[in-house]
Design brief:
alpha+beta; 4-stranded antiparallel β-sheet; about 30% strand; globular
């Protein structure tokens, strides 16, 4: 009788142990299917995260990839003639834009070819997209603000812009590749009635009629690294004709960087000013980058609203600097 009871206990214990082991296996498989991963044990420690690149460096690489995507796409704009028959436009869009845009945007343009950007007249024609700034929505989405720069044979030889259009591009990461998901182009910018032209650095700046008689004051910006001045360059103040010491008005400040300085600033190798954000790019040519200081109007002086309106009108037109007189230099 005692042996029978002992045998029954062994059978029950064995059944319970088998059920427990079965539940453990099922739980492991369920967690794995749901993407939670295997249970962590001393024999099965969690795999370390891939930290081959610091997060900051990864962000810089992603931003560089987005910039290259938009710049390469901008060089293709002149290849698509919107003057051709629609079937030829559609074929040209697929041939030239296919590597740069999402399937959804391609389908949209194929259905309505004239909605796509391209060469609308024989001259001027789109030469490139100048990127002014990028905004990251999340790690897989960037919004790019820029200008489509159009040129003629004169600008092709001497540099500059014959026409400009503001453009906004929505980019997204699809299967590990950055692609353009939407493109919105604004109206063509027109130079204002008053134009400040600077041949030394290579740009024109459009102003409203009320700025007739403006003056320009030249200062220096300084870039700080640690406690020392690491870089410096020109800072131009376009000043309203009604400005006085007793009643100062809002200036239009332009910071001028070399491409190397601008790249170093974007990489946070030095800082300009006390604001936690950097200057905003207004445009560039082959030798200089032109930017607006951050929080330039923090004191809200007289006329700051007018200056904001001027800036929002994309007033800077880049050109190539005049050749310097080497003997004078």
């Amino acid at each position: 009788m005692g042996d029978t009871k002992k045998t029954k206990k062994i059978i029950v214990f064995t059944a319970v142990l088998a059920a427990a082991l079965s539940c453990t296996v099922i739980l492991r498989e369920t967690l794995s299917l749901e993407g939670i991963g295997p249970l962590t044990t001393a024999e099965n420690p969690p795999e370390p995260a891939d930290e081959s690149l610091p997060r900051r460096d990864q962000g810089e690489q992603e931003e560089q990839a987005v910039r290259k995507l938009v710049e390469d796409f901008g060089k293709k704009l002149q290849m698509v003639s919107l003057l051709a028959p629609e079937d030829r436009i559609a074929a040209s869009i697929e041939e030239n834009y296919g590597d740069y845009v999402t399937d959804q945007l391609m389908q949209k343009w194929q259905a309505d070819p004239l909605a796509a950007p391209g060469r609308a007249v024989s001259s001027p024609w789109p030469d490139r997209i100048d990127i002014l700034r990028l905004e990251m929505s999340n790690e897989n989405r960037y919004t790019v603000y820029g200008e489509i720069i159009e040129i003629t044979s004169a600008e092709l030889e001497n540099g500059g812009a014959a026409a400009k259009r503001p453009v906004t591009l929505m980019t997204e990461k699809v299967d590990g590749r950055w692609l353009i998901g939407d493109v919105t182009a604004g109206q063509y910018d027109q130079p204002g009635p008053v134009v400040y032209e600077n041949t030394e650095y290579g740009f024109r700046f459009s102003l409203p009629e009320t700025w007739e008689g403006y003056t320009v004051v030249e200062e220096q910006w300084e870039g700080i690294s640690g406690t020392e001045v690491a870089e410096s360059g020109p800072r131009l103040l376009i000043r309203h004709p009604d400005w006085t010491r007793d009643d100062p008005r809002q200036d239009i400040p332009l910071m001028i960087f070399t491409p190397g300085q601008w790249s170093a600033l974007q990489n946070e190798e030095f800082s300009v000013g006390a604001a936690p954000i950097g200057p905003s790019k207004l445009g560039s040519n082959s030798q200089y980058v032109f930017a607006l200081p951050a929080r330039y109007n923090f004191a809200f002086p007289t006329g700051f609203e007018e200056v904001e309106e001027i800036i929002n009108g994309h007033p800077l037109w880049p050109s190539e600097p005049a050749a310097k007189d080497m003997e004078a230099e």
